[in-house]
Amino acid sequence: MIEPYCGLAPLPAELIARWNLDPALIAALVVGSSAHLGMVNQSSQATGRKAYVAPLLGWALLAVLFVSPLCALTSALFSARVTHHVVLVAVAAPLLALPWRRSKLAHLLARGAAAVFILHTVLLWLWHAPAPYAAALADPVVFWVMELSLLGSAMALWLVILSPVAPIGRTLGLLLGSVVQMGMLGAVITFARTPLYDAHLGVTTAWGLSALQDQQLAGLIMWVPASLPYLAVALVLLARRLDRPMIAHEPAR
User: Fold this and answer.
1) ∠ CA 176-157-122 to the nearest 5 degrees?
2) How many CB atoms are located within 10 Å of the residue 17 CB?
3) Nearest to 85, CA basis, from 185, 233, 194
4) Angle CA 177–52–176, to nearest 5
5) How far is the C-alpha of 111 from the C-alpha of 97, rounded, in Å?
6) Which of 30, 114, 132, 195 would be a feasible disulfide site paired with 211, CB 3.0-4.6 Å?
7) What does the pLDDT look like over 130-169, one tens digit per residue?
8) Which pLDDT does position 48 carry in this prediction?
9) Statement: residue 75 has pLDDT above 80
10) What residues have CB less than 8 Å from 204, skipping those under 6 apart?
C-alpha cells in the first residue's frame, strides 16, 4: 500500500493524535517564515507592526494546513483535501503576498496578468484531475510539487490583484474569473456520477460518508465557500475605488 505524505487515512478516534511533526517540514516553516518576515522588515513600504500581521497569519495557516491533524484528515476525505487547497490558495496566499503588493515583482507580474491567471487556473484543474492527484498521493516529491505550485501560482495571482496601481476593471475581472473557474471545477466534481479519486475509496465510511458523498461535498466546497474570499476582496476594492471620487469632489466649506 502506498502511503501519502500525510500518512494513511485515520479513523475518527485517531485523528487528534495525528500531528505531522516532520523535521524537514518544521525547519522549512521556521526558515521560510523568518526569511519572509526579514524581507518585510527591510521593505521601505512595510513599516510598523501592522506590516507583520498578514504574513504572520499566512504562515500560521500554513502550519495548520501541514502540521495539524488536518493534514492526516486529507488522506481520508477528499472534501478535507479541497478545504485544504481552498485555504491555501484563497486565504494563505493573499496574506503572504500582501506585503509585496507594491514591489517590482508585483509590477512585473501585472504586465502578464492574463498569463498568471491562466497558469494558476491550469494548475488548479490539473492537480484536481484524478491521475495527477493520485500521483501526488503516491510520491511525496510530487505531493510537494502540487502544494508549492498551487501556493506559488496563487501568490503570483494575488500580487496582480492586490497591486494598488492595477486598473480596477482588470482586477475585478481576475477576481470574477477566479470565482467562475473554481465554480466550474466544483460543478464538475459535484455532478460526477461515480467516485473519481481511488485513494479515498473505502476510507470515507468511518467518517459517515460514501466516497461519492465525500466527493460531492468537496465539489460544493470548491463551488461556493471557495468563492467568498474573492468576492469579499472584490467588494472591498470596488468600495474603495468608488469612494475616491466622492472625496475628491466634496465641496469646500
Assistant:
1) 80
2) 9
3) 185
4) 5
5) 17
6) 195
7) 999 999 999 999 999 999 999 999 999 999 999 988 889 9
8) 63
9) yes
10) 76, 77, 78, 210, 211, 213, 214
b or e along 124-143 (b: 16 or more beta carbons within 10 Å of the residue's beta carbon)? Answer: beebbeeeebbbbbeeeebb
Rounded Cα–Cα distance for residues 136 and 204 (Å): 19
Q: Is 9 exposed, middle or buried (0-12, 13-18, 19+ CB in 10 A)?
A: buried
Which residues are within 8 A (CB) of 20 and not within 5 positions of it... i.e. 6 or more apart? 6, 7, 66, 67, 68, 71, 72
The beta strand positions in 32-168, using DSSP E, are none
Residues 6 or more apart in contact with residue 242 via CB below 8 angstroms: none
**Per-residue pLDDT at 91 exceeds 80:** yes
Task: State the cell numbers at 74.
Answer: 486529507
| Cβ contact 162:97 at 8 Å | yes
Q: Is the pLDDT of residue 79 over 80?
A: yes
Q: Residue 65: name the closest of 80, 50, 52, 76 by CA.
A: 80
Closest CA to 95 of 64, 59, 147: 59
What does the pLDDT read at residue 184? Answer: 97
The pLDDT mean for the chain works out to 91
Q: Are 185 and 125 in contact (CB under 8 A)?
A: yes
Of 108, 110, 104, 90, nearest to 155 (Cα)? 90
Q: Is pLDDT at 246 greater than 70 in this prediction?
A: no
Structure-block grid coordinates of residue 77: 476525505
- Which residue, 185, 195, 201, is CA-closest to 82? 185
Number of C-beta neighbours around residue 97 at 10 A = 25
Residues in the chain: 253
Q: How far apart are CA 34 and CA 232, in angstroms?
A: 29
